[in-house]
What we know:
Elements: H1 40-49, H2 52-69, H3 71-74, E1 95-100, E2 103-117, E3 124-147, E4 151-160, H4 186-222, H5 224-239, H6 242-251, H7 259-274, H8 276-289, H9 293-300, H10 305-313, H11 318-341, H12 353-357, H13 363-368, H14 374-396
Antiparallel strand pairs: 1-2, 2-3, 3-4
Amino acid sequence: MATEVRPAVRDRKEPELPLDPTVPPVASEDTDSNVYVASQWTLIWRKFRKHRLAMIGGTVTILIYMVALFAEFLAPFSPQAFSASYTYAPPQPLHIFEQTADGLRFNPHVNGYKVEIDPVALRRTFVVDDEEKIPVRFFNKGTPYQLWGLFPMDRHLIGPVEYDQDPNRIRTPMYLIGADRLGRDVLSRLIYGTRISMTIGLVGVTVSFLLGILLGGLSGYYGGAIDNIIQRIIEFLRSIPDIPLWMGLAAALPSTWSPLTVYFGITVILSLIGWTGLARVVRGRFLSLRTEDFVMSARLDGNSEMRTIWVHMLPSFSSHIIASLTLSIPAIILAETALSFLGLGLRPPVVSWGVLLQEAQNIRSVATAPWLLLPGLAVVTAVLALNFLGDGLRDAADPYGR
């Protein structure tokens, strides 16, 4: 019996099913195809942008370092300029416009001071005088300075119209956030202190980075006796309380050293203590990477040990190192602030946030001039911004994680 052969049905269309709104559509080759070919750093940047606190922290960190970079231009006066007639002068609000008979007029100014006698304490106090107006100008000429020690300039972002050529004198009072016990401008000193406090973190982290990578890499790559010796040193350093160790090392610095030498001495001290955490991270990564296929291939290909470490092993977790370094900067800033606050770190005439906080060590000064605590607010802001930035970098370092 012959079997009936039916022709194949070719152009038959399957019935279209309704789309389920809960199931996301599959990306085609033409839609967002660059995601599949994006580099590691592109994926890290895309994930970092989704971390709002990290973006805010990164923006604030950039602004703080811009203040440190252009401190001479942003500060109205030199950090050592003073006027003995205005000790503990209160802040003068900055007025951009002036009310006239014809309406508002652009006239930046601050109000002067008048002296009053406290009837209880019988001491002289300054009160802002609303009748006296001291004109100020943006991008005004002021005390000459050298930007970055290279370019002679005399322009300041803001300053009084009448100024003194002597960098150690304040001719016209303009204390936007108040004056200290010697009549120095707290705002100018705060801006100059930003440079020292923030750069000591960068220099310290750089030294800690080199020590952590070198010693941690040797410990994890070779193992054995080298690993035991380095790990015992790390455990010994981490077992000592931080503050007494800092105080002991800082007190060992000769009092005859110049402020610049003391600055580098404090940086080296903080770096010699701060490398242990990064060394532990590098050691753990090296222990897991030294048996990977690409490391064995690099060895068999004839690469030297240093080339294998720096060219093949370190780049594989460079994002984690960057996150660790970012989180290490706040610790060094806090350490310098604590040492300088205790009088064992940087000393005048060097200006840092810790040195400025020495003015607020007693209750009387704080009660008389609470604006002396503003350097502490600067420390909190910088540390929070760097922590948010480091937290975002740590999350973005694993772009494939959730």
